[in-house]
Amino acid sequence: MEKKELFKLNNRYTIMTDLQYPIGKFKVKKDYTEQETTEFLKTLKAFPEELQKVVDGITDEQLATPYRPDGWTAQQVIHHISDSHMNMLIRLKWTLTEDSPRIKAYYEDRWANLADYSLPIQLSIDMLKVIHAKVIALLENLDKETLNRSYVHPETEYSFTLESVMALYAWHGAHHIAHIKICKGEWS
């Protein structure tokens, strides 16, 4: 049985795993319907503006608040999203131009401690707007065969299809928006 650690947040106790995965863990499927991929595309297209709305009016104190003990601050989460989705864009391009490329992993925790994570968050949000415009341009109108092209992740040896990448990053955005809302005291 999983040990459940309690953490006091906004004057109530919360289970630690609920803070780490407030919308649940990502679960990849072997295949996705056309309706699901259409929804993923809509979610990816809308994400930068959704993030912008969530951070509008965020205070310096909220930006400096971690979403869980030993977790990243809201500021680190926002910069991480930009870095992660930048990697998604590169991985998509490799997958569309190479046969089952083996991608490069990166140390997210180390990146979160680099100097650029102290820059204003708007830089990363603006970067996300450009990244997502390019991602949508690449993914729009792909047929099922192309959406089943894949890359191999070196840490898990798992082969991610473009459909599963769409699902993953649609989840990833929502996952981190929940973290930011936790830092703002808006998550219940």
Automatic annotation (TrEMBL):
<keyword id="KW-0378">Hydrolase</keyword>
<dbReference type="GO" id="GO:0016787">
    <property type="term" value="F:hydrolase activity"/>
</dbReference>
<dbReference type="InterPro" id="IPR024775">
    <property type="entry name" value="DinB-like"/>
</dbReference>
<feature type="domain" description="DinB-like">
    <location>
        <begin position="44"/>
        <end position="180"/>
    </location>
</feature>
<dbReference type="Pfam" id="PF12867">
    <property type="entry name" value="DinB_2"/>
</dbReference>
<protein>
    <submittedName>
        <fullName>Putative metal-dependent hydrolase</fullName>
    </submittedName>
</protein>
<dbReference type="InterPro" id="IPR034660">
    <property type="entry name" value="DinB/YfiT-like"/>
</dbReference>
